[in-house]
Amino acid sequence: MVAFSVALAAALLLTGLIVPFLRRGQLLDVPNERSSHSVPVPRGGGLAVMAAVALASTAAALTGREVLWVPLILALALAAVGLADDRMPLPGAVRLVLQLIAGVGVAVWAVSTASPAPAVGLFALVTVVAVAGYVNAFNFMDGINGISALTAVVAGAWWCWIGVENDLDGLVTLGAVVAGSMLGFAPWNAPHARVFLGDVGSYGVGFLVVTGGVWAWANDVSAVLCLAPLAVYIADTGWVLVKRAAGRRPLMQAHREHVYQQLVDGGWSHTASASLCAAVSLVVCCAIALAPLTVSLPAVAALLLAYLVAPHLARTGAVA
What crossing angle do the helices spanning 198-218 and 147-165 adopt, rounded to 10°? Predict the structure, then answer.
């Protein structure tokens, strides 16, 4: 509770304090063809979130809780990359290389500290790909008010539960600081955005969320449980890439083909679209936690499919 409370209070306070500085520094998100907003909004609120994460982690350590310091340091480093990208867009290749390096760092740390150590080859490969892939997915999905805050709160709560169930104190701390900091950020971002997370926040928070899964998997937690809070963002981003590849459209070109974007374009509010995404993520986690895999996996597959076709259902009137 100390980690969660400090993260919540710090993010709530620091986000409010940083907004005027972002405006004065002209760190603004100017609307473009991919945007879901119509006026310039300050970006870089993730600075406050990552500061809250660091403060809360330090407070947790002072009260005797385990803190996963290596992932935290890597998250702060990746957030710095995001901040540089917020100020002046970096080449995609540079961002990817740095994300892959962060993935390698997490893989080496997890292999060297988990007991028993996971199979090095497969674990390292999956970790590096998962980290880079999910950080980018989190960034792509951070396009409407509240979506990243709500989804990260679900993920943080999930890592807390997984940590308690499997006696992984460091995972509990990580989950608490992610959930608390993003809950503190939420009122500044939704329902009407006074500030955006920015790449500094999406890179840092996305990295922490996926690292929770890496650390749990390294400590013999089922891969299905480790994927649960990541499933919606992976499914949405993956489905867009498949559609664009099938249509021979540039994969890296700005677009509005994510589920949340199509729902907003179809008349849904940001709050409704973001809430649907977070609610599906929550139901996926609950289904996997409460039902046998023979029941939960088909149910989750059906739920994710329903989520992916939600814009079509909305257009035909099947979903109000």
Answer: 20
Which helix (H) or strand (E) element contains residue 148? helix 147-165
Query: Is residue 240 one of the residues assigned to a domain?
Result: no
For all residues of the chain together, what is the average pLDDT? 91
Q: What pTM was estimated for this model as a whole?
A: 0.93
Q: Is 138 exposed, middle or buried (0-12, 13-18, 19+ CB in 10 A)?
A: buried
In a domain, 132, yes or no: yes
- Rg of the chain over Cα atoms, rounded to whole angstroms, equals 19
Which residues neighbour 43 within 8 Å (Cβ) at sequence distance 6 or greater?
Answer: 22, 27, 28, 29, 86, 195, 196, 197, 198, 199
Tell me if 7 is assigned to some domain: yes
Count CB-CB contacts under 10 A for residue 314.
19
pLDDT at 272: 94
Domain range enclosing 160: 2-226
| Residue 278 scores a pLDDT above 70 | yes
The count of domains in the chain is 1
As given in the structure block, the two tokens for residue 86 are: 């917020």
Compute the residue count for the chain: 320
Among candidates 302, 283, 298, 305, which has minimal Cα distance to 238?
A: 305
Residue type, 27: L
pLDDT tens for each residue of 40-76: 889 999 999 999 999 999 999 999 999 999 999 999 9
Distance CA 149, CA 163 (A): 21
Query: What one-letter code names the amino acid at 105?
Result: G
